[in-house]
Write a structure and sequence with these properties.
Order of helices and strands: HHHHHHHH
Structural class: mainly alpha
Number of domains: 1
Number of strands: 0
Number of helices: 8
Strand content: under 5%
Radius of gyration: 18 Å
Length: about 150
């Protein structure tokens, strides 16, 4: 028997090992089953199916809420960290998130959060696309002559 609740265990152990809000959101989305609900073998084994399910849904809602409250400039940094940790480009990482969009939402019926998250991902995508040409043009300019 464990002394921690399933939610406390999830927050302090599993999610603490995942760096970045976007990475946490993507991780929780990856635990969603097609038919709904969540599947995490270790948590179910330790805490039982029902407790694990409640903890995962609660944590998913908490992480989504944090993402939606975080300034876009901080999420842009978070995206760079999350994509680096997954060894993907930021653009590829975002594409993966957009492909699993419905799983990113703890409740598919939450149209307001869905629109907000879609706007956030779209803004990050556009910022990422604009960042690449700016970085390339700055690096391709010839050095200034010394005066």
């Amino acid at each position: 028997m464990t002394l921690k609740s399933a939610l406390q265990d999830l927050r302090e152990t599993t999610l603490a090992a995942v760096s970045g809000l976007l990475a946490k959101l993507a991780y929780l989305a990856s635990l969603r089953r097609r038919e709904g609900g969540y599947q995490h073998w270790g948590m179910s084994l330790v805490h039982g199916e029902e407790s694990s399910e409640r903890a995962l849904k609660t944590a998913h809602a908490e992480v989504l809420s944090k993402v939606l409250k975080t300034p876009i400039s901080e999420l842009e940094e978070d995206l760079l960290q999350s994509s680096r940790d997954s060894e993907e480009t930021a653009g590829t990482y975002l594409e993966g998130m957009q492909e699993q969009f419905s799983k990113l939402l703890p409740s598919p019926q939450d149209a307001v959060s869905a629109r907000h998250l879609n706007s956030v991902l779209l803004a990050l995508s556009r910022l990422e696309k604009n960042r690449k040409p700016a970085a390339q043009s700055a690096s391709s300019q010839p050095p200034r002559p010394a005066q």
